[in-house]
Amino acid sequence: MVEGGIVKADRTEFTECFKTIGKTPFVMRLALSAGIGGLLFGYDTGVISGALLYIKEDFKEVEQKTWLQETIVSMAVAGAIIGAGLGGWLNDKIGRRPTIIIADVLFFIGAVIMSLAPAPWVIILGRIFVGLGVGMASMTSPLYISETSPSRIRGALVSTNGFLITGGQFFILPHQPWFHSGNVSYVLRVKGTWRWMLGVAAIPAFVQLILMLSLPESPRWLYRKEKVSEAEAIMAKIYPAEELEEEMKALKTSVDSEKAEDELVGGGNMLSKIKNAWGNRVFRRGLYAGVTVQVAQQFVGINTIMYYSPTIVQLAGIASKSTAMALSLITSGLNAVGSIVSMMFVDRYGRRRLMIISLFGIITCLIALAIVFYQAAAHAPRISVAESTHFGVNSTCPAFSNAQNPATWNCMTCLKSTSGCAFCANQGNELYPGACVSKTDDSKAECLKERRVYFTEGCPSKLGFLAVILLGAYIISYSPGMGTAPWIVNSEIYPLRYRGIGGGIAAVANWTANLIVSETFLTLTEALGSAGTFLLFAGFSIIGLILIYILVPETKGLPIEEVEHMLEKGFKPRLLGGEKKQENKVSES
After folding, report:
1. Second-level CATH architecture of 269-379+461-589
2. Half-sphere exposure of 365 (CA within 13 A, CB side)
3. 290 neighbors 503 (Cβ within 8 angstroms)
4. Domain residue ranges in the chain
5. Where are the membrane-spanning stretches (predicted)?
6. CB 141 within 8 A of CB 162
7. What distance, in Å, lies between the first and last C-alpha atoms of the chain?
8. What is the largest CA-CA distance in the chain?
9. Beta strands in 66-212 (DSSP E)
């Protein structure tokens, strides 16, 4: 993100990038050092889904209380909302470099707190610290990179931050217990696996902290603070001598224009800026579109997949934690591939079209997932009285023992009856009738001793791997369209003088929607079932599709002035009375 918007790179820019960094390696040092913030961002969002499985083993209250699991996951998002707002203020007040350093300190403290946590509330505290760092880094790292990069390769270098975010999600691989073999595997399988997974984030945070202490401040920030000589000294390290004078003139022109725009929208008072911006009809219409795409991005349920994918895989009937985490990494891989696909096609086919196509795919996958989970629940293995009493009357789940019609129970009935029940699968075949047992360490040990499979989240099903395939199809549908286009739209939809305000409001809307979804997912699966929850997200996706069709114009290839003119007239899609000429102009520009 640069000056309120996303910088996009083309192939020529990437070619030029390799030439430039060969001559000026200092530029790459700046970009990679700041980009570690993206790595930390990606690692934190990727690691919690797997760590949660092991946290539940160490703290029984977490396993028994759905709201506690949701809070552990979502408190980082809550912290990120505050961190993003605080980061914006710190960026202007003390500079980009000190803000990144503060984010590193928060990351480091949060990782250490989580790794040493003696109780769930301490993990939550650590997640808040990490979230504050995530919020600051998510906006400051790309801003710092963009302001310390030569203009001709800025898009390519800022794009590295996005790759490092997905790289951070892959970085969880070496820290997963199933990844290792031999003695290392044995060490990591002991109690406290999640402590390693969460605590290791302190290492890159510390590395970035050391690196940033040796790097300069953004020349743009220095110039705005009238530290012209310092800004010029840094620019001299970034640009060849023959380009320096021209770039300093361009920087002066840009900063002077920015200061003039600040005065037009209310000076340094944020409330005055928002009030003046809201009085502008073009800004309001742009904000309707910008907030719509950001909220829709979250309410299609993407972060239920990113934060809870191993749990979802277990709900699909795959009990093994190792297998669940291995399969969940598919989502990170496909997400990374999708971001590359988006870079290739978003400027060719347009943002609006990609989002609409993406939503059709998302809706189809969510409905299919709802059907699969419904069928899996309806055809779950039956509960056998003989199997249930096989481990002793005291091991049988009390809810089953006291049931009026135990003959009607199946595995799903057992798991949903109370948080204290688990399903021990039939020894001969998981799909045959099994036992409804108390969810205790003793009953689990007895079940596993007989080489049976112990289920606490979902039930064994022939449809389990079909659910995994559909999760992959969902990511493939999401990533190239709804995954990236909303951020691009928000970099283009606002009048230039209101771009920072509009982008900031839309970003807060995105984080807030993220918090709502991540804080309620497990509660929804308990109340509505997995099938009902995915069907609910399909409904939200349909609403998002309708609103995007009505409110969001195509901004591909349009200068800011033309976007303003389009919003001034009022955008209408062709089926609702919009002009055919306008629609063609928008889609073909």
Report:
1. Up-down Bundle (1.20)
2. 24
3. yes
4. 12-210, 216-264, 269-379+461-589, 381-455
5. 30-55, 67-87, 99-117, 123-144, 156-174, 194-215, 287-309, 324-346, 353-374, 463-489, 501-522, 534-552
6. no
7. 23
8. 87
9. none
CB 422 within 8 A of CB 443: yes
- CATH class, domain 12-210, is mainly alpha
pTM: 0.74
Report CA torsion sign: 119, 124, 125, 126.
positive
Question: Sign (positive/negative) of CA torsion 343, 348, 351, 356?
Answer: negative
Determine the number of helices (DSSP H) and then strands (DSSP E) in the chain: 27, 3
Question: CA–CA separation, 372 vs 374, rounded Å?
Answer: 5
User: How many CB atoms sit inside 10 A of residue 426's CB?
Assistant: 18
**Which amino acid is it at 190?**
V
Alpha helices in 148-215 (DSSP H): 154-170, 182-188, 193-199, 202-213
The pLDDT tens digits along the chain (589 residues) read 333 334 455 555 555 555 655 566 677 777 778 778 777 877 777 778 778 878 888 888 888 788 898 899 888 888 988 887 788 788 888 988 999 999 999 999 999 999 999 999 999 999 999 999 988 887 788 778 777 777 655 555 665 666 666 656 555 544 444 333 333 333 334 445 788 888 888 988 898 899 889 888 988 889 888 898 898 898 888 778 877 888 888 888 878 877 776 666 655 566 777 777 787 788 889 899 999 999 999 999 987 877 677 777 777 767 666 666 666 666 666 766 766 665 566 666 778 888 999 999 999 999 999 998 888 888 889 999 899 888 888 889 999 988 888 889 999 899 888 878 999 999 888 889 999 999 888 888 999 999 898 988 888 888 877 888 888 889 888 888 888 788 778 777 887 677 767 877 888 888 889 889 888 888 888 888 888 999 999 999 999 999 999 998 887 776 666 777 788 887 777 665 555 544 444 334 3
One-letter identity of residue 381: P
Count of other CB atoms within 10 angstroms of residue 195: 18
Q: Which amino acid is at 493?
A: I
> Do 372 and 464 touch, CB atoms closer than 8 A?
no
